[in-house]
Amino acid sequence: MRHGHRESHRGERIGWLRAAVLGANDGTISVASLVVGVAAAGASQDSLLLTGVAGLVAGAMSMAAGEYVSVQSQADTEAADMAKERNELEAEPERELAELAAIYIGRGLDEPLARQVAEKLTAGDALAAHARDELGITETLRARPVQAAFASAAAFCAGAIIPILTALLAPAARVAEVSSLTSLAALLVFGGLAGYAGGASITKGALRVAFWGAFAMGLTAVVGRLFGAAV
Hints:
Blueprint: H1 14-40, H2 45-91, H3 93-106, H4 111-135, H5 145-169, H6 175-198, H7 202-227
Helix pairs in contact: 1-2, 1-5, 1-6, 1-7, 2-3, 2-4, 2-5, 3-4, 5-6, 6-7
């Protein structure tokens, strides 16, 4: 007798992976850019540490709030669609059955088989069938605002701590250079891990993230030197 097995698909990771990658990259890039820019303006090491910690706290809260609001909007839309579908199933079950059968016909089933499948799924859980096949709402991809907010904030902190530790441990005269190199190395790792977790090219993922990180830090350093005022 054959036993079913649970397959793992990379799409199941998309919710937390997106938030984690965005948070870690943003934490490293934004805080490193702040540290590099302020260092280029001639600030003291204490000022650099204060800048980094303030950037970490503000950035983590901003990421959490922004991710929560964004994903909650998606969750609200899903809930409204589900409520509408529930009402339609109660008011016009035959119409909804025909609608479900039409979806399966459009996917290649002949009419009798499509009707049979629709009837079977409707008898089991009509709302789940319509959510999945009509609305495209599945448990794997369903919006989870609290999870996304915590993942973003935690990942931001994990990324931001790297340039902060660098500012703390690096020689005062070389904070900008050491912070840039350390942060770029971290971004290469984050980008590679994101590519691996998502099934994409590790090299392309690493280089893509590092490029934009280097661009952000370089631009901030230029701004710091142009204004040149110690903070």
